Structure formats: C-alpha cells, structure tokens
Amino acid sequence: MPVEVRLPELVRLGLVDPFEVEHEAPKQIAKRLDKAGLIDHFNFKHSVFTLARRASGDCQFLDAKTRRCTVYEQRPDTCRKHPHVGPKPGYCPHGAKRIVRIVPAHER
Length: 108
Hints:
Blueprint (H helix, E strand, L loop, with lengths): L3 E2 L1 H6 L5 H6 L2 H10 L3 E5 L4 E4 L25 H5 L27
Antiparallel strand pairs: 1-3, 2-3
C-alpha cells in the first residue's frame, strides 16, 4: 500500500528539516526528495507526498528480514491508523480476517 504523508510527517521521519519547511515551497522540497529517491509522487493540489517503495513494493522503512518498521516511533499517520483508516477501513491485505474494533459500553 502506498504511504502518503504531509510535510510534518516528513519532518518527524527526519527526511525534511523544519527550517526547510519554513523557507522553501513544498514543490521545491518534492523535487529534492524525488531526486534523492525518497518519494514517488507529489500531489501539488493537496501537498501530499507518496513515499518511495522498494522494487518488491515494500515500504523503504520496512526491514526486509524482520518485516518490522525501522522508524516505528516516527512512522507516518497513515501507518499509525492502518487499517482503521484507508481505502478499505478494517481490511488488511496481509491477513484474510477483517479487523473489528470492540467498542466499550461507555463509548456506545
């Protein structure tokens, strides 16, 4: 699944400096990140960056051996909210089961 991020998430990941965000246009930042092979796409209209993936389709931050996130504490919001938010809420392509959140009685 492609990982879409915004500038604050790129800062959290350490791919963009906060100073850069304040003094450069998102388009310029996107050009730099694209040239470095860190993003695959930039949506100018919504200022959304799509992180680059490996040839296998895996996220660049996924450890190939352990299959664990190497930037877990800094991971983008897309990853933090998966699979509860996304194109198919509650669906994870890596498992056949639908993930169901059990709502406590006091939240109903």
